[in-house]
Amino acid sequence: MEKGQLLDLLWNQYTLLTPSARLIRGVFEDRGEQVQNDHIALRTFDDERVNISVIAAPFVRLGYVKKGEYQFKEKKLFAHHYEHAEDPSAPKIFISQLLLGQCSADVQRIVSKALDQIDFTKLDLDTLMLKGRLWEISAAEYDLLQKESEYASWMYIFGFCANHFTVFVNELKTLNSLQDVNSLLKEKGFKLNDAGGEIKGSPGEYLEQSSTIADQIPVAFGSESKNIPSCYYEFARRYPLPDGTIYQGFIAASADKIFESTNVSLVDKVLSNSR
Ligand code: NI
Question: Under CATH, which number does the domain 3-273 receive?
Fold first, then answer.
């Protein structure tokens, strides 16, 4: 598969789960903007069958190389980001994984049971990131995971897919700051993640980020259905390093708060504040 084709498939799958992302891109395009994608984030577990290396392999074959690494102690996550070696306009790929060894026996058991349901002999690993959920779910297991790790419960429901796409704010011609982007989105009725403030990071850290809160979509548990936060859209403005090149990395403290865009408690709080 070509790089453009893979990225298109990821976008199409992502916008099915995140209708607001398509609407927001439309808001920018109506202003004459051509939206450039800064990065795509993917989530997984550190189980060797599906870990970061497995998810990254097709990107590496398409010319991506491993760059920064990031630790999220409290959330028990580890992440790598990848950049394309030859195409600076290609989105960076940010892949995180839950460190199962640090999770409770219950979380380990539920995740193993889910992954054991995947028939890896029949699976094309190159498209694993597009496969969504490949296991049965139950409300009891979801609740148990969600109490301990919002990341684990999100993965349990949505499986392998893009967690978010990111608008590269530097390339917007009609909006000069992340503040302006945020104001426009709020004016249009979109809700932002305000955990740790709407803007994470600063020019001094060479990266400012904001994001919407995740859309909520109905998920069926047998005959019952529950609205669960799916995916969100992120906005990133990058600043030049002292050597004049634009910073390409990520700030763990900011990413830590951006992860919370899919947290049930945050989504509930933001939605109830706006009622
Ligand atoms: Ni991101």
Answer: 3.10.180.50
